[in-house]
Design goal:
Elements (H helix, E strand, L loop, with lengths): L5 E2 L5 H13 L25 H5 L8 H7 L8 E2 H9 L17 H14 L3 H10 L8 E2 L13 E5 L2 E5 L3 E2 L6 E3 L1 H10 L8 H7 L18 E5 L2 E10 L2 E8 L4 E7 L6 H12 L22 H5 L3 E5 L4 E8 L2 E5 L5 E6 L4 E4 L6 E8 L2 E8 L2 E9 L14 E5 L4 E8 L2 E6 L2 E10 L2 E4 L2 E7 L5 E7 L6 E5 L1
Parallel strand pairs: 2-6
Antiparallel strand pairs: 1-7, 3-7, 4-5, 8-9, 9-10, 10-11, 12-13, 12-19, 13-14, 14-15, 15-16, 16-17, 17-18, 18-19, 20-21, 20-27, 21-22, 22-23, 23-24, 24-25, 25-26, 26-27
Helix pairs in contact: 1-5
Amino acid sequence: TPETVFHVASVSKQFTVFALLLLAEEGKLSLDDPIQKYVPEVPDFGQEITLRHLATHTSGMRDQWDLLNLAGWRWDDVITKEHILKIVSKQKELNFTPGEQFMYCNTGFTLLAEVVARVSGKSFAQFTKERIFTPLNMTNSQFYDNHTKIVKNRAYSYNPMAFGFQKSVLSYANVGATSLFTTVEDLSRWAMNFKNPKIGSAALIERMNTLAVLNNGKTFGGAYGQFIGPYKGLQQIQHSGGDAGYRSFLGRFPEQDFAVSVVSNSGASNPYGLAMQVVDLYLKDAFVEAPQAAAKIEKTITLPQTALQAFEGHYWDAEGLYSRKIKLEGGSLQYDRGNGNVTELAPLSEHTFTMLNIPNAITVTFVTEDGQQRMRVTEEETVLGTLEKYTPAIASDIYLKSYLGAYTSDEISTTYTIIETEGKLVATHPRSSDIALTPLKADIFKAGGNTIEFTRDGNNTIQGLKVSTGRVRNLKFTKD
């Protein structure tokens, strides 16, 4: 029913920022304060990380969920604020210089909730109840910081299986990045506060709805605990969420005084798609048709097959830790991202090609620098990546024994042991399933969705490895 209480995952983040800004309006903190001023457990990385960085996913800090997963934690484990603070306190490096990039980071919002708690002298759950939920009559909302607490009318979450459904257990006892329990009715009350604020000033609302800016002055679609972008010519401010089998979405269209929220306890649901169906019904008369773009005429040329063959091969992005394949099929070069995601390339010159049948103007240029062939991918004037041509490694050609052994990371207090099984490398962990290592190139392997790069000393002896995930870069392990 509309009164059923759902866990809405990352939709929580806008509430965390709002709570922070309430304290900022009272002069109790500034968004430009360093996080260590309030949470000294956060290490000094030699570069200032501000509350603003944390609130906009530009801090460079490693993501808490990826770190815990690498440490062997299961998603149905009880994960408390203390567990997260401990693993954060052991980190030695950032993913990037604060403010230089956008990378979604849950850690920042756990830390912001802790800042609110320490500055206010109340738990984050108590502060938000007193300052947000009660004034807005959100009687069925709370930040769930105790995994043993019984909540009336709570929906548990499920995932579809071949035989039906199975329960998807969530035992979080941490708040800020997630763990808001609420209803669609309460989310509507929250959305209306952005139009006519009962709590928070108009200036606070405007700040939340303002795009964040990187060090280079550019924006990236992220605001404060929310994202801003167009939908059929209208401005939408939105955020989605997903934990266990819970899925959620809240989108606001300020100029149309319209908002829609969808909450679900099925991991197979698509709240965004459902929400946009509602938007299409209610706002169809307000949609702004994009002006008809003039036909794009690419001055393509024809190159002989022998010239195209010279560009075939595998290319590696050392910064992004991903590979691409260029192959010649049907008389044209194909840009292969893997998993069937292929785009045709048409030559603009002897070395520059344009991607066909995609919405953006992206070019691929092949260059030779210092005797090494590279592929540079560019969108307008922005370089998306520079990839170096390489020869893929083959498992049978790798001397596997040099990689065997135990590898320990002090930053996540865990050890993986790499063994050889049937001519393949496998990483084992006491709490995780075995992970097969698939060779990409010399000393670089794929392990599930992660990338492992083995490191060597001056004697060419393997001394450790680095693991990179979608939200953690170069987490170091030392060979025991």
